[in-house]
């Protein structure tokens, strides 16, 4: 398999993805896997400037891709991005100026696989990215870079059922305005659909990288989507 870079989700840091790296290392040599080194400040900013988070994370992603190019010359990189990290990756790959920054390494990336990434959202800061993607993404993009959008449908949002369903309802409503959907507990399935990509729905996985959960980055979670790398 090609060298692989993991991109953490919004407000998540690199250490949370050690388990994902371990799981992937059972089929890909560990030296061919890197996690973009991010911390909470990269997402929030100091002083707080969340509107610049995409630019800070793109800079770190660019350094990671450059490092992989030096380490494995001539090989394309696969990006695996969780949650809002997936829309950061798409903005980066579009090679269009975003907030004053633009990068030109799309030819270095052969595939982007996203995990619970909403490409349709009403959240303000997330929409800075999704609106930009909708404006600039062209069908020809997919001739150069394969995109697979993966999302789990394990959790139903409902106000008439238990506590978990009610919590999911509010998460989904916050993303798209409609809480009565299925999703991964945070992001509804429908919001992850990206026209032109391969859209995949899995089960048995949840969104948040919290202890004692079977999220996208656990051994069991990785087994659900590794076939699409």
TrEMBL record:
One of its GO terms (molecular function) is hydrolase activity. Signal peptide: none annotated. The keyword Hydrolase applies. InterPro entries: AB_hydrolase_1 (IPR000073), AB_hydrolase_fold (IPR029058). Residues 2-106 form the AB hydrolase-1 domain. It comes from the Bacteria. Keywords: Hydrolase. PANTHER family: ALPHA/BETA-HYDROLASES SUPERFAMILY PROTEIN (PTHR47909), GPI INOSITOL-DEACYLASE (PTHR47909:SF2). This is Alpha/beta hydrolase.
